[in-house]
Every structure is written in structure tokens, then in C-alpha cells.
Amino acid sequence: MNVIDASDLTRTYVTGEVSVTALKGVDIAVPEGDFVAIMGPSGSGKSTTMNLLGCLDRPTSGSYKLDGVEVSGMSADQLAEIRNQKIGFVFQGFNLLARTTAMENVELPLLYREKEIPSKERRQRCKDALQSVGLGHRLDHVPTQLSGGEQQRVAIARALVTRPSLLLADEPTGNLDSRTSVEVMRIFQELNEEQNITVLLVTHEPDIAQFAKRIITFKDGRIKSDLTVKERLVAKQVLLNMVDEDE
Fold it and tell me: Under CATH, domain 33-50+92-246 is a member of which superfamily?
């Protein structure tokens, strides 16, 4: 089954008498266990798409099914519930509470469901999530005691603790150096390959996109290409061969 099944999505923003169509009929299907990177220049529609797929916004028209459930027409409260139960978010900024331990930061999404998830289970889930990103020894550390890479790992653990169907990462390496970026991307790969977690990543860095299994490129509000990493490499080699022949 597809975790994401979006058909003919459009999004038009209206300010006064001016309307701007940011998305122009986009179709995206992401099966369970896929790892997709979304790329494109500024204004191409990739961030708008991320907001729609993350249930942070609603499309002007089109259909979006998340885990087989149509969500495009849901109310704000219904979308908030879907975000809490079905989607884990990782952003460029770590968004951790400064005076709160790693455990307490990771527990935050579960507090909205404290009536259905007992305290003991919440703490065990937090420990498991932190251990899955290699921070089982940093449970009681606050953000100032952690490196940038470790803070992003806490953010990833926080996204995982609700056991979401989909992990959305928006420029997750934007505030990290090259070495730490590779370490964080390897964590995403391990989560995808070993735990079959579906990952959708937005990035402007080609090197980061190569960690995914598939790359979707946007331009002018439409999908320009949708290829697996292997298909992109083959296409690139074909172009290089054509250039060599011309010379």
C-alpha cells in the first residue's frame, strides 16, 4: 500500500487581488518503505508540496490520501490529530526546549496522547527512540550539552516516538557541517532499511539527495523528473557519453 497517494494537487495563494499558483497538478505515490528526496530551486513548489503532504496546509484542489485515508478535506483539528499520530517531522532547526533533557524533548509529542499511553510506556518509547539514533547514553543531557549532530538526533528520535507512518525531513542537514550531515543521513538510511520507515526528504543539496532511493525534482510548480538514484546515474552517464561522442 502507498503511504502517500497524491493526485492532481494544486495550491493557489491569494493576497488581495493577486493570486499565485505554487503547485500545478502534482501526482506523487510513495509506497511503504520508500526513501524519497525532493529537490528543486527556490519557488519550484517543493516546500508547498512538503506542507501539503505533512498536513500543515490543504490543497486548493486534488486528492491526498495518507495511509489510505483521504485527508485533503479534513478540518484543522482533524489534520492536527493526523500530524500527531501519522507523521514525524524533522526540520533544519532542531527546535529543542533548551532547559529540557533529551528524554523530555522526545516525550513531548506523546503528551498530547497521555490519556491513551501510560507514563511507563511513554518513557520506554522515548528510551527506545533515542537508542535507535545512538543516544542511549545521553538521555538526561540538555541541548547545551549536546553537539549539533546530537541535537538533530534528538529531533529525529522525537519524530519517531509516535511510531509514524511517514517521516518528513525538511533540510535536516542545513545547520550541520559536512561530516555530521553524512552521519545524520546514514541514520535516515538505517531507519529506512532496517525498520522499513518511509522517509520523505526536502533538500537543495545533490550530495544529500544521493542518500535516498529516489529523487523527485520540481520546477515551476510541477514535477520535472521522478527517478531512482540508479536511473539518475544511468541518465547522467548517457549524457556524458553523448558529449564525449560530439567532441
Answer: P-loop containing nucleotide triphosphate hydrolases (3.40.50.300)
